Amino acid sequence: MENVTIRMLAERLQLSTATISKALNNSHEISEETKQRVLALAAELNYVPNPYASSLRKKASNTIAVVIPEVADSFFAEAINGIESVAQEKGYHVLIYLTHESFQKEQAILRDFQSGRVDGVLISVTTETAAAQHGLEQLVKEIPIVFFDRVCEEITAAKITTDDATAAYKATTHLIAGGCRQPVMLSASRHLSISNKRTEGFRQALADHQLPFTAASIIYCSNDTIATHELLKKAIQKEHYDGIIATTEKLATAVYEAAAALHLQIPHDLQVIGFSNLSTAKFLNPSLTTITQPAFDMGKAAAALLFKALKSSSFALPEQQEVIPSTLLIRNSTLAAAD
Amino acid sequence: MENVTIRMLAERLQLSTATISKALNNSHEISEETKQRVLALAAELNYVPNPYASSLRKKASNTIAVVIPEVADSFFAEAINGIESVAQEKGYHVLIYLTHESFQKEQAILRDFQSGRVDGVLISVTTETAAAQHGLEQLVKEIPIVFFDRVCEEITAAKITTDDATAAYKATTHLIAGGCRQPVMLSASRHLSISNKRTEGFRQALADHQLPFTAASIIYCSNDTIATHELLKKAIQKEHYDGIIATTEKLATAVYEAAAALHLQIPHDLQVIGFSNLSTAKFLNPSLTTITQPAFDMGKAAAALLFKALKSSSFALPEQQEVIPSTLLIRNSTLAAAD
């Protein structure tokens, strides 16, 4: 007779293997109705828990996953260091998965987690990710998960963020104090809540200084470096911007590229602020004024929350929220002095 | 009666679970003698292969691991992109593990692979790793593995490297052509073969230009940023170096830090070449002359080899070697013109 497995139960009941496993282990995360359905079928098919499988599953554990768009960005590189500082202490492996800003890739990775490969997940979503279409809502119910930086507003889950609206407000006010009358914000996404919050702070600062917010005030840039370079060059020539807020590290570099191509002097022709944790920011020509995000601390806080949940199943993980402030570091790519 | 598992067989025979599994599957990688020992014990204990365990094991697959020291370095960030460009096409997940230059952490990660979590491994070893003490030699026999960039010379295994000796020779010659008489090389390790090859190229270039190679010609720097900064400042003041070859990205940034602290002008007081893939190298003040390593192509080539081995068990993976050349990109941190 063929061995009856959790997978077979899952297929017959159209549930995930994680749900079956939790139902069999009487987890509080599973409804009574589902538990009854699972137990009834398990009894009918004479399912016997398999000690080797369960030991294999345990073996696949002591591991947390970090799902991020990329590592070629100091923010994520530092956040990983913060996460690993905690995981190391707990004796856990950290697996890093990259989505390369692809929503499809992200979904494939999330599906992989349903096999029980990892004990918990730390995630910063792609620029394409919108909560509604997403398997994330389901995953949050099945596995401990903490969102950091790029969170999904619509999903009830643990979140570690920075003060994006306030940081953008500060950056905009700093440009205006330096004489900018035509500032523009370069945004990486129309969907991400952090992008929308930065837009909000930018818009509020313009309003508070009687400057107009128009269709030309925000440029949405793709992940394609060459396309972004062309888009930027054209927009700067057409709109005569005098200040730019680049909301990612790559976009800050792209502005230096565009300024060089157009023979514009930073900061005299064009002031620049980058949201960035670049270790070379102070050695750039000119040195780059940055909104520096608390990347290490955000990673550390996210991991600390996750381990609390792994330690105690009664910890109300999805209700946890923490906002860690960013800092404006004034250097030579902008003209205003510190307040 | 307790189920007999592969793990039990492994414990009884003092072999890894991977070896037992391969022996039971009649793998050519296992000696006849070992196969006989495994089969004899399996028969004695009435071992029955477990279909669920085997499916779980399969489920834990379609995955390759990348083991690297860190991601806060453009070389590794780009190499990952090269690796993922291949893995994506093959429908594989890529798990990234960081060693943070710790040999102990590396060993813990390698042990984790013996559970069959991944199908293959791409590795760039830590600055502490010396072949002799290492579990790597054993792992190479148990799982398909490709070394890239930081390889272990003493182990017979597939290796993708760049022309480190030639690149260091070129860098040194370039400094000498720009008037340097007291060049120094900053090295990250006394153990790594790539470090030793760079030393060799550096030494040869000095000899070919009748310059002495002394105890002060090489500085070994640790992974500790603050200690490196102090070490560099003191050494530059004491030895009056006029040219520096920084063999990692972090060391290049450290030289800019030290020069600023000592009020030395680059390139007039001190010329600098960095082994680096920094996207901001051309925007630094002054722009940084680099030995640019083919990071993306090295990652891609390493992944391509690994997938060949995963596709065909007769592919002689450990015999594969490829060297992809680096390029000298001359910018403003050095004085000599191009040849």
From TrEMBL, chains A, B:
GO terms for molecular function: DNA binding. InterPro entries: HTH_LacI, Lambda_DNA-bd_dom_sf, Peripla_BP/Lac1_sug-bd_dom, Peripla_BP_I. The keyword NADP does not apply. This is LacI family DNA-binding transcriptional regulator. The keyword Transport does not apply. Keywords: DNA-binding, Transcription, Transcription regulation. It comes from the Bacteria. Pfam families: LacI, Peripla_BP_1. Residues 4-58 form the HTH lacI-type domain.
